[in-house]
Amino acid sequence: MTDLRLEREYPISAKKLFDLVTMPEHLSQWFGTEAVLIQKIEMDLTKTGPWICHMIGRDSGDRFKLSGQVTHVDAPKSVGFTWAWHDEQDQRGDESHVVFTVSGTPTGARLEVKHLDLSNREAAERHLAGWASTLAGLERLAK
């Protein structure tokens, strides 16, 4: 298993950042890479329970689906959820775990993203690129 970790700082309060990364109305505005359009997202990271996201490739038209369970919420500090891509037959693949941790800084707030238990180094590299692109959307929203 392989883990990855990213950190980003934002010029907003830790509470505002936690709201942006957990509340459904905000998630729909930034979640997903720049290469996809969100077709449907049922994701509420303010409470435990299931979540699901359907995406379409902007250029390719390929369809993607991922789902999981919100495993913990410790507002306004951290939230964790499982993560698995679905295949063409709608079967869930390998499950991994994501944890968002928010903390205050002297100039705003920091988000740490840990993506744990990825199946191999190649999967970790793909997810690292995906998270970098996804967090660019959060950066635009957090200005």
From TrEMBL:
> Which Pfam families does the UniProt record give?
AHSA1
Location of the Activator of Hsp90 ATPase homologue 1/2-like C-terminal domain: 13-142
Q: Specify the domain of life of the species encoding this protein.
A: Bacteria
Q: Which family does it belong to?
A: Belongs to the AHA1 family.
**What name appears for this protein in its UniProt entry?**
Activator of Hsp90 ATPase 1 family protein
